[in-house]
Write a structure and sequence with these properties.
The chain contains 10 helices and 25 strands. With 467 residues, the chain is an alpha+beta fold. The strands form 5 sheets. Strands 3-2-6-5-4-1-7 form a 7-stranded antiparallel sheet. A hairpin with a 7-residue loop joins strand 9 and strand 10. Helix 9 runs parallel beside helix 10. The relative contact order is 0.10. The N terminus and C terminus are likely disordered.
Amino acid sequence: MKKLISIVFTIFACLHVAAQDASSYIIKTRHAQQTSAAKSAKKTQGKEIRDLISDNFKFYSPCEWKEGMRFMVIPEEYDLIVNTFTDTETGKEESNINLRNKIMIYQGHDEGLDGHPRLHFLCKENHRKYYYPLNGISFQDFCYDKAGVPTLAYLGDVDIARTKLMGHKFFTKTTTYCIDTSYSSDDYEEVKVPKDEIVTVKAIAVGTRNFPVKIIVEDTKGNEFYQNVAISKTNCGLRDDEFVKDNARHLFSGSFEIQDDVIEVSKDYMAYQGAVVHTKDVTLMLTHGAGKDRNVRVPRQTTFTIDHLIPSGDNHVTLTLTEKESRRVYYKRVFFSHSDDVTGDTADSIEDYFGYIFAIGEGKARETTQAARAAIRQGYVILGMTQDEVQLAIGEPDRVSNESGYVTWTYVRSTGKLLVVNFDLAGKVSKYVVDPNGKQPKAAAPQRQVKRSSQAAWNTSASTPIK
């Protein structure tokens, strides 16, 4: 036992210096300290519409591995005691600490003299050949087991992510991310981040064997943090049903949504009928309330079901959409192919492109009360509404002010008058006025409701970009 403890202590005390090519995959957030005094790391149906992620990150079972595929040895604590690879020349097991952060190039598979299958690798740094033996299992069974080769993080996903994701803007989709706390170890701390924040990809590095792509992002305030994610799941060692609870955030879709990605949409637009979508940014839509039509700046991350698609003579299509929470009906004119747009691929026309406006799946969860839902469907504000409910009722405000925690939203009406909505410290509507002189709305007193203008609320066309 003393000898084992001594070995483990020696392993953790060793620091392997990686070759230059391998070291380019090791990147820390700027919170990492030069010392190693940080805390130890914690353990951590619908229609298919192709997008940047599904198009570029393919899952490869070992039966589909091609010679030349690259992996990096990323041992965890258990792997530092139990060896993974055997030296082909000497027949002796190699310590994972000696291979830590080295690149292993796949060289195919064969059957050893003992009748057991073996997967062969060439170490890029020391030019030695190694194999991983499959004991008690056929190669075909191994392919479909999803266990994979221990310690190996697939670098193919890292390389593709560097090409495809650098500089992109994402929405955060969870609240738990990480920051590095040491340059000389893998120590990190978890940090809390608000959902639906806009962040920019600053760097892509190797993460862990289970979650091989380390995506480092920066928010609008300059805070930097990262998430290790399994994008293709190649050799990640986890089954699909294991990506639940805390592991769910280690799927790309569990932590990020690409804000500026224009999804590749089918020209067969009728295939989208019944699809669940959400807005990727603030979008102007036509809706009906209180007996009148109006244009509303629908918030980003609002979830809809596409009920109907009606084509027009100029190759555009009018969508009828039902908002998830309030069941309010909206209309949006779009086109599904750049070749359909008669004005050409311009800055104005792209605002009407389906793939620019919508992402597939549900957006931000919003809760509404029964009383609020009735007002939302009619386009009214009532006292006690939350900010989410006000957004669903009358859209995104034109101006937002915050004084000592008291938030005020201002809406510019087409008549030139203002609708001013005041929120209390609990974030609920405490007062609203229809112009800067403080006149109360003419709605019936018991309902305390405010009608929006029957005309377009903004003097812009539906194709004008909304920032």
